[in-house]
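Open question from group meeting: does this chain pack into something compact, or does most of it stay loose? Before anyone orders reagents, we agreed to write out a predicted structure and look at it together. Recording both the input and the output here so the notebook holds the full record.
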Amino acid sequence: MERTFLMIKPDGVQRGLIGEIIGRFERKGLQLVAGKFMQITPELAERHYAQHKGQYYYDALIEFTTSGPVFAMVWQGDNVVALTRALIGKTDAVEALPGTIRSDFAVHTRFNLIHGSDSPESAEREIALFFEPDQLIDYEHTIQKWI
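Structure tokens returned:
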């Protein structure tokens, strides 16, 4: 079973979209194994977005990510990284396909509501940044046999 890291960003929290966003992943049949409502420190944001350091948008990204609470999550399922990326939609809301989270709710690229790991390797690194191993809950997701 593959795992991925997702984070509802400060704009998604402030707009009251946590439940709507979680519901989309649940309706897809994915399994939530960890969740945490938190305020990210600048240090954690810098580690999380380290691959973007030096880009013109880096400072604004760190400032935005630390501007309010976020909801960090770990989801699992078959092909969960690819599936969640498809549900999230492209970074630019204008380019996101209709029906995706970003197409349905985002207007600007900077305020695009949610982060999702882009590979299993990134997911592993990001999960370790936000969660201790004992915070990931293994349980039988009884609907799996129907998906």
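Observations to bring back to the group:
The two ends are 13 Å apart (CA to CA).
The mean pLDDT is 96.
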